[in-house]
Amino acid sequence: MELPHDPMILLGVINMKLRDFYPDLEALCDDMDLDLSELSEALTEAGFFYDKNTNQFHKI
């Protein structure tokens, strides 16, 4: 699956997948063959951070 380039749509897709299918960000990246640091960097640049406790990206 190719991920959206728009950061807000990317945020929605990733948070939905984390909520519905994956126990953490590492599992999502492993399963979807994504680079964890690239994904995190893209969302960090858009103003979001990953919270392990909620397993979601949130606004900084």
Commentary on this structure:
This protein is α+β, with helices and mostly antiparallel strands and 60 residues long. It has one domain (7-59). It is 53% helix and 13% strand. It has three helices and two strands; from the N terminus they run αααββ. It has helices at residues 7-20, 25-32, 36-45; strands at residues 48-51, 56-59. A two-stranded antiparallel ribbon has the order 1-2. Strand 1 (48-51) and strand 2 form a beta hairpin.
Q: Helix/strand-derived class? A: alpha+beta
User: In order across it, which strands form the biggest sheet?
Assistant: 1-2
Question: What is the number of beta strands?
Answer: 2
Helix content, binned percent: 40-55%
Shape: globular
CA-based gyration radius: 10 Å
Bin the strand percentage.
5-15%
Low-confidence stretches: none
- Number of DSSP helical runs: 3
Q: How do the SSEs run, as a string of H and E?
A: HHHEE
Calculate the terminal CA-CA distance, rounded to whole Å. Answer: 27 Å
Number of domains: 1
- Biggest sheet overview: 2 strands, antiparallel
Rounded mean pLDDT score? 97
